[in-house]
Amino acid sequence: MAPITVGDVVPDGTISFFDENDQLQTVSVHSIAAGKKVILFGVPGAFTPTCSMSHVPGFIGKAEELKSKGIDEIICFSVNDPFVMKAWGKTYTENKHVKFVADGSGEYTHLLGLELDLKDKGLGIRSRRFALLLDNLKVTVANVESGGEFTVSSAEDILKAL
Description:
Elements: E1 14-18, E2 24-28, H1 29-33, E3 37-43, H2 49-61, H3 63-68, E4 73-78, H4 82-90, E5 98-102, H5 107-112, E6 115-117, E7 125-127, E8 130-135, E9 138-144, H6 155-161
GO molecular function: thioredoxin peroxidase activity
EC number: 1.11.1.25
Family: Belongs to the peroxiredoxin family. Prx5 subfamily.
């Protein structure tokens, strides 16, 4: 499957997360992104070094600025289970705006065409590192990394594109 790109409508599929009442929710991507400007940024794994020390903190630190530029939702996405994503999200006590969501079996990652094979590292099939800007489900920015790089998918990169 070809990777998602600018001009595409983001595919519908399900993701899971714990809501503000600590209830597990499984929802369609379209239901949370329709009619909104959404940043969906993907990471290869929760608690991994680049993801935990650079990628996620960048979006948390720039969340207010992103919101001031019209962003409705900032979603951190990974091929992990929702319990792991919940625990990882709780490590960022300063976070007020980034929602941590799970693609437990990698099915949505497959629909996006953004799988990353990390079997040689014992991690299985994961998500490539990316940042998508969606405007009413349409991809207006698609910053997708090669391999394990972190060069084009930061919060700063999205801010430049707004």
